[in-house]
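Figure-free illustration: sequence to structure, shown twice.
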Amino acid sequence: MKKNDPNSRHKKNAKKLLILFVNSVLFFALYRLIVELGERLQNPMIYYIGSSIYMAATAVLIIAYFILNGGTFGKYNPTWDDLPDGGRWTKERKAEFLRRLPERQAKAKQLLYILLPLIVTLFLSYFELFLLA
């Protein structure tokens, strides 16, 4: 198959979408289990701890994504001139940063398969809390 074959791109995109959907369902099911457990045991602390873990994990993953993506949230690739001059940013450090950036951006892209379902889960839980309660 060719690299730009529309069928292969559609299959890859469908697979990515399926992975995101399954992860979202799993994260939301786990979150609902935590909420249900707190209600059945009549212990709101279980809910508070569970939601705090989800929020903390989301915050840590957002920071990790930002760092791995070279200090940006988009597809922007910094150039040599964009990096700071002087101080700790020597020519060797700049070269190393730019050399490793594609590898780190690939890791950041993989991190989105966990981060996006967590964000969806938190959005749905707060949507349920504020609008449906």
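We now fold a second protein in the same way, so the two outputs can be compared directly.
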Amino acid sequence: MGDFKLSASAEANGVKISDVSANASLNVNNHFAAPQIDTAKPSLLGRAISEVRRAVNPTAYAEEMAAAMKIKADAETSVYNIYRQNMPFLTEKQAFLFANGYVSTPEQALNVFDVFESAERMLPEPDAYPEIAPAMLDGIIEGSRSAYDQELREIWASLLASEIKKPGETSRKTLRILSEMGKEEALVFMKVCSFATYDQSGKPGILFLVEDNRNHTTYNEKAVTHYELCMLESLGLYVINAAFYPPISSEESLVMHLSDKAVRISLSEGEHRFSLPYGAFTEYGCELAAICNVPSAPNLQDIIKRKAEAQGFTFSVIDKAGLEKNY
């Protein structure tokens, strides 16, 4: 990302651009209506870019903002308008990104705005936007530009909202992996996530992918295939040959959280290890799974129950109210 040198109005960094269809018709003489901009509420994308500029050089940012307000009052112009007037072939969203150093095609610009606007709707306080690290902002814009499928844009939006809420918790490698994913990989990953359990903090833990036959070709009643797991392993999200053997005793049970309940695996006496040879998410798979927050599969509780009882454990369910019931 290049330096932000906005010679006209930096106010363009904090505005929400109107529907691009309003200015779809441009003539060769460059006579077209000035684009309609909603200045009442800054967009998430505009705020994010503005925050980065302020963090990098706060003095220059303050001076530029003061100059921008004067210029706007005197001439009602902006860098965005300059690009629109001098490059009429650019769409409104393209011009906004172009003016801030992000060159995009019309389709890529739509992808970026869809991701940022979706993330804005996920935030509990839409007007309180903390600073996004420059490298992270670049990575998110770069990755979301190529998110042509709705499923991928939803993941990018969730990642952006998560980074705003908890800055620094998403690694650059997770961004890179997500950038390499297509629609098929995204759908497979979310499907596998539906068979994951979580700890009390919400971190993904044990996966329950139980083989349907001895050939290890399908899992969980043909919901997942071995080919799909290999696909996730090649991306760096999953390890097929991983296993867990947590000890369970009369004094120490194993509690796993699903999206709407928790389950407990316990033992009335003695000690025994719970054999869970079902593979595991990598560090980056855990990051992305926590971000996606996929609801548990409807049959996940039954899968866990069958595996626990087959190994001699007691299975119980804890509802959201904390009430526990043996099954």
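Summary for the second example: The radius of gyration is 25 Å.
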